[in-house]
Automatic annotation (TrEMBL):
GO terms for cellular component: membrane. This is Alpha/beta hydrolase fold-3 domain-containing protein. It comes from the Eukaryota. The keyword Ligase does not apply. Residues 116-262, 307-381 form the Alpha/beta hydrolase fold-3 domain. InterPro entries: AB_hydrolase_3, AB_hydrolase_fold, Arylacetamide_deacetylase, GDXG_lipolytic_enzyme. Belongs to the 'GDXG' lipolytic enzyme family. The active site is at residues 194, 348, 378. Gene3D superfamilies: alpha/beta hydrolase (3.40.50.1820).
């Protein structure tokens, strides 16, 4: 362990060189490591790996060997972990959806355990049970909870609403068979990070009006992506080049999930994909005006309105569906939601999605616990 700091110092120049070469020679997006970010050295190394993966993925795709996305999934696969002495772990299927269930081995003193249904991040395109194995083991051990990790179908092969439907189906199956896992039916939580936070919010909204199932105890949303109407909110401007999620990649992932391609990513980034009347309708919920002033100090400027392109809107109009963009749900749904925990990071394009949803929940009488990582960046729970 003592060698690690020295190793990092040796590798940092190589990481910077890899990032520069991939950016300049291969036309990949430029990145920005803010001075106040958590563990900048480690972030640079991860960035170098991601840039190298993207560069090699482009080469493989051009040669016809495999797609960039397929190669990216291969690289991102988590390594297999050994037996955990504190957990029973088994792979099952809930309504034909693959899941991995983590159950603490220790006795629970006669009390039923908490149940946590976890949806992984990865832009609806990447991520797997193995990728989040370490995270889910940690959650189960530290909270002494039964954790169900859900392997939903990924885009672009499986477009919206496939991921949402898988997460909802697995959640309902678990809640209907909860006695098999010694879980308290009044203490079930949905949880997810990034795209998984989006799916957790959508599932929570769907179940809010169900009378045939136990009510969810809470939802935990970790830097969630909750809307695709405005990619020019303050956090998108401030953190457009901050890894691990760049502004253009956020739009790319949303389009891959929606349509299975990202043909109109530039128009979406510019805001040409939403009609003026629709934008006005949702302005009460999706607007910089609803974001506290202290979050607008750093690098924010008013932007000139762009021309609406009707042809693009026809391909992305489902962005207005709450199952895809939960921030757009009606108040009648939002006020029924369970107690919520929202984590946001300062150096994250999705920061303002979380802030806007926090306000919506609070305005509708939902109790919210909010934690903001001042030095945090997108994807931090997967790296630390």
């Amino acid at each position: 362990m003592a060698l690690l700091p020295a190793l990092l110092l040796l590798l940092l120049p190589l990481a910077a060189l890899a990032a520069a070469l991939a950016t300049v020679l291969l036309g990949l997006p430029s990145y920005d490591i803010p001075p106040g970010v958590n563990q900048p050295a480690k972030l640079r190394l991860v960035l170098a790996v991601l840039l190298g993966t993207a560069a090699l993925g482009r080469i493989l795709e051009k040669t016809g060997l495999c797609s960039q996305i397929t190669f990216g999934r291969y690289v991102r696969q988590g390594r297999k972990l050994g037996v955990d002495p504190k957990l029973f772990i088994q792979d099952l299927q809930f309504n034909k959806v693959p899941v991995r269930v983590y159950q603490p081995k220790a006795t629970s003193d006669g009390r039923r355990r908490r149940g946590i249904i976890f949806f992984h991040g990865g832009g609806w395109v990447f991520g797997s049970l193995d990728t989040y194995e370490k995270v889910c083991r940690y959650i189960s051990r530290e909270s002494e909870s039964v954790v169900v990790s859900v392997q939903y179908r990924l885009a672009p092969e499986h477009k919206y609403p496939a991921a949402y439907e898988d997460c909802l189906s697995a959640t309902i199956h678990f809640m209907k068979n909860i006695e098999h896992y010694d879980v308290d039916p009044g203490n079930v939580i949905v949880c997810g990070d990034s795209a998984g936070g989006n799916l957790a919010a959508a599932v929570s909204q769907t179940l809010a009006g169900r009378s045939d199932l136990p009510k969810l105890r809470a939802q935990i949303l970790i830097y969630p992506g909750l809307q695709a109407l405005d990619f020019n909110l303050p956090s998108y401007q401030q953190n457009r080049g901050v890894p691990l999620l760049l502004r253009e990649r956020a739009a790319f992932f949303a389009l891959q999930y929606l349509n299975g391609h990202a043909l109109h990513v530039q128009e979406v980034l510019e805001g040409s994909h939403i009609p003026p009347d629709v934008r006005l309708k949702y302005r009460k919920w999706v607007s910089p005006d609803n974001i506290p002033e202290k979050f607008k100090v750093r690098g924010v400027k008013p932007l000139r309105p762009t021309d609406f392109i009707a042809e693009v809107y026809e391909t992305v109009k489902r962005f207005c569906e709450p199952n895809l963009c939960p921030l757009l749900a009606e108040d009648a749904v939002v006020h029924q939601l369970p107690e919520s925990f929202i984590l946001t990071c300062e150096y994250d394009v999705l920061r303002d999605d979380g802030l806007l949803y926090k306000k919506r929940l609070e305005d509708n009488g939902v109790r919210v616990t909010w934690y903001h990582l001042e030095d945090g960046f997108h994807g931090i729970i997967s790296l630390l």
